[in-house]
Amino acid sequence: MPTLCLLMGLERGEKAGQGAAVRRVSLLNSALLLSGVATAYAFGLLHHVSDNDPSGLGLARNLAGYSGLALVTRWAFGARVAPIVTVSFPFLCTFLGLDAASKPLPWAWPIDTATSTSATTLALALLTTGIALSHRDHPSRLAGSPALR
């Protein structure tokens, strides 16, 4: 749910106004996402240290991963498809993400244990990729750009 709220709030202004803005809106969006994920990791770490329970770290990892997944799909397929993919992905992981020994497959990071380094690495890689892509225009949007004519 926090990821969908962040996703819905990204770049809701008029595109022409954002292009002429003094500050790049994508930088502010990235700062918002990174501060949200950093806060979640800080509280997750605090919860882990105080109660010896890693579930807070898993929550922070999933927030980072879902945010990255939303940004990547938003860049690739648009703002209308990104929430659908983000909401559907945990169900896909639940139904298809376990191997024969009931261990999570590498791509099914949301259902892996909270302390899994591979799941955390994959989630943070998704977030990094999503943030990097959010600073670039999609090639199909560039095709109509007057600079390319």
Give the H and E element order. Answer: HHHHHHH
> How many domains comprise the coordinates?
1
Helical run tally: 7
Weakly predicted, low-confidence segments: 145-149
The share of residues in extended strands comes to under 5%
Which geometry do the CA atoms define? globular
Radius of gyration: 17 Å
Number of strands: 0
- How far from one another are the termini? 42 Å
Fraction of residues in helices? 55-70%
- Structural class by secondary-structure content: mainly alpha
Average pLDDT score? 81
**Main sheet specs:** none
Descriptive tags:
mainly alpha; 149 residues; disordered C terminus; 7 helices
Task: Kindly describe this structure.
By secondary structure, the protein is mainly alpha-helical. It has one domain (2-138). It has helices spanning 2-9, 15-19, 25-51, 55-77, 82-96, 117-134, 139-142. Helix 1 (2-9) runs parallel beside helix 4 and helix 4 crosses helix 5 (82-96). Residues 145-149 have low confidence and may be disordered.
